[in-house]
């Protein structure tokens, strides 16, 4: 039910966004979101899949200190790598954007949305932890209701108030920060209910977390590439208008269920 609500709200947000922005601005924004989304998969380091496995294992009396330790390791890894990526992006500002962007608007949006890389990675990791500890109701509110409503509200405000695409991009960053803060509050209550103690040095399962996450990075990059690389390639070789033509219809196409074709038995 939550996924159905999210599909309807996201489709409404997408249609409104296509109508509000001119094709070039919509293409530039879609490209910037695609590139930052792909880099966020690198920043995530497969830790979301690792935590989906480790949280249920550690969520038991006697091992909950390791649950807090695993969460600390995952958040710390993402934050450290995200800080490195942001530092490199700022240090080489103006040099790396032209390698991907075909125009100034796309380059500016890349700079504005760079902070979404660690926010998206942390959000994805906290989502699986919340699903395992806080229950379906919290995930329904945060993922399937709060995020789509925030995005729909931003797009409607952009249309009514005449925001530029840069202002809308800053709104996306603010919405990402609000989403991470909401997950932090949800997890704070869930961990307190379980009496999860503060982990000590011996309770940091570095080998378990990183060892399980490393091969999962390949899986995340494969899935992210299928989703995001077409828009990045269209921007680089054909421009923002070509990206707009692709991304405008893609959400509608994904609503059509794929049917499995089987060979008849002999």
Considering the chains and any ligands shown, give keywords for the structure:
266 residues, disordered C terminus, 10 helices, globular
Provide an overview of this structure:
The protein is mainly α. The protein is 79% helix and 0% strand. The longest helix has 33 residues, at 206-238. It is globular and about 55 Å long.
Blueprint of the fold:
Elements: H1 2-20, H2 23-44, H3 47-58, H4 64-91, H5 104-113, H6 116-133, H7 136-161, H8 165-193, H9 206-238, H10 240-253
Helix pairs in contact: 1-7, 2-5, 2-6, 2-9, 2-10, 3-4, 3-6, 3-9, 4-6, 5-8, 6-8, 7-8, 9-10
What is this entry, summarized?
The chain is mainly alpha-helical. The protein has helices at residues 2-20, 23-44, 47-58, 64-91, 104-113, 116-133, 136-161, 165-193, 206-238, 240-253.
Beta strand count: 0
Instruction: Supply the helix-strand structural class.
Output: mainly alpha
The whole-number mean of residue pLDDT values reads 89
Strand count, sense and barrel status of the largest sheet are:
none
- Number of H/I helices: 10
Order of helix and strand elements from N to C terminus: HHHHHHHHHH
Radius of gyration: 20 Å
Report the β-strand fraction as a percent range: under 5%
Which segments are poorly predicted (pLDDT under 50) over 5 or more consecutive residues? 258-266
Give the CA-CA distance, first to last residue: 40 Å
**Helix content bin:** over 70%
Shape by Cα distribution? globular
């Amino acid at each position: 039910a939550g996924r159905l609500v999210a599909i309807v709200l996201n489709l409404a947000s997408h249609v409104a966004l296509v109508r509000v922005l001119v094709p070039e601005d919509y293409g530039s924004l879609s490209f910037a979101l695609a590139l930052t989304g792909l880099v966020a998969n690198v920043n995530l380091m497969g830790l979301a899949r690792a935590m989906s496995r480790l949280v249920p294992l550690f969520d038991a009396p006697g091992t909950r200190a390791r649950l807090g330790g695993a969460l600390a390791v995952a958040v710390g890894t993402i934050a450290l790598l995200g800080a490195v990526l942001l530092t490199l992006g700022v240090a080489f500002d103006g040099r790396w954007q032209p390698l991907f962007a075909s125009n100034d608007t796309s380059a500016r949006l890349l700079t504005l949305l760079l902070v979404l890389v660690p926010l998206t990675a942390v959000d994805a990791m906290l989502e699986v932890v919340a699903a395992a500890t806080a229950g379906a109701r919290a995930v329904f509110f945060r993922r399937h209701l709060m995020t789509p409503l925030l995005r729909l509200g931003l797009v409607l405000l952009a249309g009514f108030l005449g925001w530029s695409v840069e202002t809308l991009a800053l709104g996306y960053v603010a919405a990402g920060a609000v989403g991470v803060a909401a997950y932090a509050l949800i997890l704070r209550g869930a961990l307190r209910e379980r009496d999860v103690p503060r982990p000590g040095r011996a309770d940091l399962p570095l080998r378990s977390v990183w060892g399980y996450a490393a091969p999962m990075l390949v899986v995340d990059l494969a899935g992210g590439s299928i989703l995001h690389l077409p828009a990045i390639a269209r921007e680089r070789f054909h421009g923002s208008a070509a990206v707009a033509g692709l991304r405008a219809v893609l959400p509608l196409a994904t609503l059509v269920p794929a049917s499995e074709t089987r060979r008849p038995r002999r």
